Amino acid sequence: MRSFGIGLLGLGTVGRGVYRVLQENGEIIASRLGARLEVVKILVRDPKKDRGLAVPPELLTTDPQEVISHPAVDIVVEVMGGVEPARRYVLQALEQGKMVVTANKDLLALHGRELFDVASAARTDLFFEASVAGGIPIIKILKESLAANRIREIIGIINGTTNYILTRMSEEGLDFALALSEAQKHGYAEADPRADIEGLDAARKIAILASIAFNSRVTFPEVYAEGISRIEPADIKYARELGYTIKLLALARETEKGLEVRVHPALVSFKHPLASVRDVFNAVFVRGDAVGETMFYGRGAGELPTASAVVGDIMTAARQLLHGVKGMWGCTCFEQKPLVPVEETESCFYLRIKAVDRPGVLAGIAGAFGRHEVSLAAVIQKTTGEVADLVLVTHRVKEANLRAAEEELKKLPTVEAVANVIRVLEE
């Protein structure tokens, strides 16, 4: 049976998972593939570090060229993370005509065009299933299974940390700070959690998905991102009264004006499939013109779920090599569609306003909304002493109009604060 050499760049959490899957499932992988996969070299920082794996010491190296340029390495697997030096190593491997597999969302969301151009010139392939949603096979779904569709919309819960935090706030009544602390204690959140809680991790992932779905390059800096740190237990409580839960959504859709690509918290109806996605799980909801509505659900991170996606890509690369076919997975961004500024997008909105509890206050607030063409769909008033919580849900409105109304509300003497503004996902 023919064998293909694997070179690993990195042996951290994902790298360990990849090595484990290749070793523990090696026989069944070989039977399914018709070829063996053998790890030839592994790049590490410290060969003497205890990683809880029985790795032959002769496989380890601190020299990246021993992996990238090794004559027996057919497939280079980048699982080290970060942009540099990962970008440089991946480019070197592609330039040499090696097949490359990566789990690096940061790299793709910033430098995808450059990497795919080099892969195309070298007539080789770059695989990246694990870069979005861990073990959920969404990249191949979009590039292959749904390739005949015009994708209308993608809505994803694609950050497990924020979904865990919001689940704990919703189910246990915790405030944001305590829920975040629990996420860090369980290893779901980093010591510096900003990439997760500010929506930046999800923004990188939706940039990748949008680029594939709409055949137009979207990069991370172009994605509007808003995090969950302003969500309070009161918002979750009022959302529930209105028939909603709160999730951090990554959304991409095509409109007549262009592409809308953004990340933000949203009220999601309990009737929507995404409402039941809890804890650290991820889900991606896709609407296509032919297939209709579909949803893909599973673990979006972790050693073995991510390794599952990486090894699946390794097997695809090996299968192509086995049959002498390379250069099949080129960039699909053959169009240039404009991105719609967030101010020009339209949505329904939830607002929580702290206002003085006396006659005429609501009329004044309604007048401010009316002057900016904001129509109200629902109003809840909760009185707590001299100050009332006014919870309002608008009809669909342009974001610029809503924000102008918000600024006017803040200037009203009867309004103590606009405590929160959250978009509402339309059913």
TrEMBL record:
Binding locations of L-homoserine: E190
Query: In its UniProt record, which GO terms are filed under biological process?
Result: methionine biosynthetic process; threonine biosynthetic process
**PROSITE patterns noted in UniProt:** ACT (PS51671), HOMOSER_DHGENASE (PS01042)
Q: Cite the CDD domains for this sequence.
A: ACT_HSDH-Hom
Q: What is its EC number?
A: 1.1.1.3
- A Pfam family in this protein? ACT
Q: In which pathway does it act?
A: Amino-acid biosynthesis; L-threonine biosynthesis; L-threonine from L-aspartate: step 3/5; Amino-acid biosynthesis; L-methionine biosynthesis via de novo pathway; L-homoserine from L-aspartate: step 3/3
Which of the seven top EC classes does this enzyme belong to? oxidoreductase
Keyword annotations for this protein, in alphabetical order, are: Amino-acid biosynthesis, Metal-binding, Methionine biosynthesis, NAD, NADP, Oxidoreductase, Sodium, Threonine biosynthesis
Which residues are the active-site ones? K205 (proton donor)
**Residues of the ACT domain:** 350-426
Q: According to its UniProt record, which reaction does this protein catalyse?
A: L-homoserine + NADP(+) = L-aspartate 4-semialdehyde + NADPH + H(+)
Instruction: Give the residue range of the signal peptide.
Output: none
Question: What cofactor is needed?
Answer: a metal cation
Name the residues that bind NADPH: K105
**Which GO molecular function annotations are given, in alphabetical order?**
homoserine dehydrogenase activity; metal ion binding; NADP binding
- Entry-linked NCBIfam families: PRK06349.1
- Membership in a protein family: Belongs to the homoserine dehydrogenase family.
What is this protein identified as?
Answer: Homoserine dehydrogenase
Provide the species name.
Answer: Ammonifex degensii (strain DSM 10501 / KC4)
